[in-house]
Amino acid sequence: MKKNLLATLSLFFTFYAAFSQEKKPNILFLIADDWSFPHAGVYGDPLVRTPTFDRLAAEGALFNNAYTASPSCSPSRAVVLLGRYPHQNEAGGNLWSEFPAQYPTYVGMLEKDGYLTGSTRKGWGPGEFKVSGMEHNPAGKSFKDFKTFLAQRANDEPFTFWFGSTDPHREYVPNTGIQTGMYLENVSVPGFFPDNDCVRNDILDYFFEIERFDRECGQLLKMLEEIGELDNTIIVMTSDNGMPFPRAKANLYDYGTRMPLAIRYPKKIKAGTVIDDFVNFVDFAPTFVESAGLEHPTMSGQSLWPLFAGEKQNRDQVFLERERHANVRKGDLSYPMRAVRDHQYLYIRNMMPERNPAGDSTAHQSVGQYGDVDNSVTKYLIMSLKGKSQAGKPDYFKLAFEKRPAEELYDVIADPYQLNNLAEDETYATVKAKMNSQLQDWMAKTGDLRAKEPRSLYWDQVRYTPTYQFQDYDFEQRLQEYRIKPPFGKDSREGIPCLTNLQ
């Protein structure tokens, strides 16, 4: 242990010395809202067009195994800012809660070090930060846009800027994807959705917003080029959590937690670098702080600079978690989960399996029925399939909305959509025991309250800040509001329940 500590300290001082002798780099953090891996051109998606992301990957590093620590907006964004796991951030482990201002953010640390700091649109949130005594969003003082922010910069003042898009968060303008020339038949539908034109069209609208985010990021890169700061800026492009569809966002399966990630900084990152090691969002803050030559004693993540330099780090697995997402269970209850993912298996512990992972079947406060799933035609379609499973096809309703066992285990190579739970298969008993032990050790080491009290009510009792309430909706009626015409140039198809207002 002492030897490992000395080695870690040695690496830190090596990178501290390297950065302290150079002009301090700027940081541009580009974060989408609900974008899943592998929906980018450079990852091989045949449809969605992401030239800016692809450029950053080509000129810097592309990550194949980057994971958000929690598949929920506020907890994920707190992790980015604080470099601490969600369970270490107290109330900040929940959506719509209060920011834990007692811990320093990388933005605040850089501001004290002389950086100009700013943000636009969605920073940390949703939730409250002023109640914690903060004057502005933890992601930085709010500016109209990046251009306005840069106008405040004096001479060669280093800066960190957070561009928080609301794309591709719902709701979507219907048919935006298909109107840009994308075709239904080219969509790759995840195996936990029914494969029909309604779902494919919903995915196209999601792709449209990914493309809009990518274009806006490209405009920010152009501004950096114009002021001569492109190569002196650490540029990170990623998302906070997975796509706003059933069994994705707010879930610990890959479509909820596995994120697109590219980082460009030619002074330290070789063009065309591809990283298969696991990276967790707790790693961003220590990486940024070290780039300014600062220490980070309260942070749990590993800096990425040794990884870029070819040093071996403990990155053979990644740990994931969630607590209360939306307030969608009677009694304001959480749905606590912990997980460990390696290159072959995903192991999940559902701490309170008697609760419904998607929320109550009737509206409690937020969203509507099964409110941890964003409302959409895909959601309504799957809700309409209750009790209608077909031979040879997954039970889509069960996968999305029904209760889950205390343990789940998936072979992610053989089962990339995590459909076949192997936890009760004796063939995998050794694997399950090993991963359970790894998970428990990590929970204990990082001070997770659920290591000793797996059924703790702490996150149930954390304040949920919104006061508005939703009512139940007639999902069958909502479903009938959706109709679709076929793509341009195709023969007419009748009776497909989707959207009809194509122009």
UniProtKB/TrEMBL annotation:
Domain Sulfatase N-terminal per the UniProt entry, residue ranges: 25-293
Record InterPro entries: Alkaline_phosphatase_core_sf (IPR017850), GAG_Ulvan_Degrading_Sulfatases (IPR052701), Sulfatase_N (IPR000917)
UniProt signal peptide: 1-20
Keyword annotations from UniProtKB, A to Z: Signal
Keyword Signal recorded: yes
Full protein name: Sulfatase
Provenance organism: Algoriphagus pacificus
